Amino acid sequence: MKIRPEIQIFPFKLISRDTADRITDELTRFDFVTNVSVHGPPINSKENEDYMVGWIWVEVEDNNEDIQKIIKDICDEYLPFGYNIEIGRFTKYKKGVSDYIKGLN
Amino acid sequence: MTYKAQFFPGKSDPSKNRRKYMDPSYKLQKIRSVSDEDIVRVLGHREPGEDYKSVHPPLEEMGEPECPIRELVEPTPGAKAGDRIRYVQFTDSVYFAPISPYQRSWMYSYRYRGMDSGTLSGRHVVEARERDVEAIAKEIIESETFDAARTGIRGRTVHGHALRLDENGIMFDAMQRYVFNKSTGEVQYVKNMVGEPIPAPISVGKPLSEDELKKRTTIFRADGVTIRDDAEVLQMVQNVHWERSFGGFEPYKEAKF
């Protein structure tokens, strides 16, 4: 199984769900992006379960400088207050022991 | 020679601000005005206009026993009327909030009577008789120690003082008690302290700019004024550290810094 690398975007401010959605939409238009996941603290806004976004993980086919440049350009547009980019693997990519017990595939 | 309290050592801006807030002779600068009714709504302990509930009859009717201390100490208005004990709690962001919980405790101890304050890492609760709490809350909310964006009035779900700020520079609040009004640039409270909706939004004014906050803050931070910039404060912290670490172990030994 090929383990794809992930690029973590860490904005210096907690961004709203709308901004995160716009970034996600931009990113998923590219073929080399295989998955985008977001994470952040939940807020209870107008009785709806909502959340703010503090981390965005972009799973890419292959990590190279061109791809990083494209992602940085998108970040510069939507995150004017600054951000960090890190490359690694931040989310689960295969099932673990507890997943076996639960019978997940 | 009369003793003159120094309150806090140091020459840096945070030190000066700490001294200023702790000194009871310094009158806190008033930077906004919030009506009494709005304060009652934000606190949420009673409806505006409603009578104060009491736990004992007024002191005058009670017939107190003879006691020199009772003659010496003037009761606060709340104690005189026999009010319930209520609370108000503030959360202060680590990002250059005008004051932080520990200094709140110092400041309240110098400034207010008949209150019990509790300091936690990100929040500070003060308990007192109901009308005293309202008076304290009004003074604090209207003063320079309260910033619309970096200070929150939170009874519960206080989490958020150390989280990143949001896109508008507002401290994270899981209950969304206050919202940033983009058209006016002001912060408005739409829920009371414990997260129940209130009839009309209460404006607490515009957030201060980052530069202004750095001037007003009492927080030493690596990206602002660090504690190492102020030799006198560092010396005091080291003294305290030495004395509480080694004082009980070999107290006859001389302190070495």
Question: What is this structure's SSE topology?
Answer:
The complex is a heterodimer of chains A (105) and B (257).
Chain A (H helix, E strand, L loop, with lengths): L5 E6 L5 H12 L4 E7 L2 E4 L2 E4 L3 E6 L4 H14 L4 E6 L8 H6 L3
Antiparallel strand pairs in A: 1-5, 1-6, 2-5, 3-4
Helix pairs in contact in A: 1-2
Chain B lengths: L12 H10 L13 H8 L15 H4 L5 H5 L4 H5 L3 E8 L8 H11 L3 E5 L3 E7 H13 L8 E3 L24 E4 L4 E6 L5 E7 L6 H7 L14 H16 L11
Antiparallel strand pairs in B: 1-3, 1-4, 2-3, 5-6, 6-7
Report the radius of gyration of chain B as a whole number of Å. 21 Å
Number of helices of chain B: 9
H-E string of chain B: HHHHHEHEEHEEEEHH
Number of domains of chain B: 2
The Cα radius of gyration of chain A reads: 15 Å
Largest interface, C-beta closer than 8 angstroms, per-chain residues: A-B, 16 and 14 residues
> Strand count, sense and closure of the main sheet of chain A?
4 strands, antiparallel
CATH topology of the largest domain in chain B: Lambda Exonuclease, Chain A
Global morphology of chain A = flat
Number of strands of chain B: 7
Would you give an account of this structure?
The complex is a heterodimer of chains A (105) and B (257). Chain A contains three helices and six strands; from the N terminus they run βαββββαβα. The longest helix of chain A has 14 residues. In chain A, α1 packs antiparallel against α2. In chain A, 19% of the residues are buried. In chain A, β3 and β4 form a beta hairpin. The model of chain A has no long low-confidence stretch (mean pLDDT 89). In chain A, the strands form two sheets. A four-stranded antiparallel β-sheet of chain A has the order 2-5-1-6, with helices on one face. Chain A has a two-stranded antiparallel sheet with strand order 3-4. Chain A has 105 residues and is α+β, with helices and mostly antiparallel strands. Chain A has a single domain, classed as 2-Layer Sandwich (Alpha-Beta Plaits). By secondary structure, chain B is α+β, with helices and mostly antiparallel strands. Chain B folds into two domains: 185 residues, Lambda Exonuclease, Chain A, CATH 3.90.320; 32 residues. Chain B is 31% helix and 16% strand. Chain B is built from nine helices and seven strands; from the N terminus they run αααααβαββαββββαα. Chain B has a four-stranded antiparallel β-sheet. In chain B, strands 5-6-7 form a three-stranded antiparallel β-sheet, with helices on one face. In chain B, β6 and β7 form a beta hairpin. The longest helix of chain B has 16 residues. The radius of gyration of chain B is 21 Å and the shape is globular.
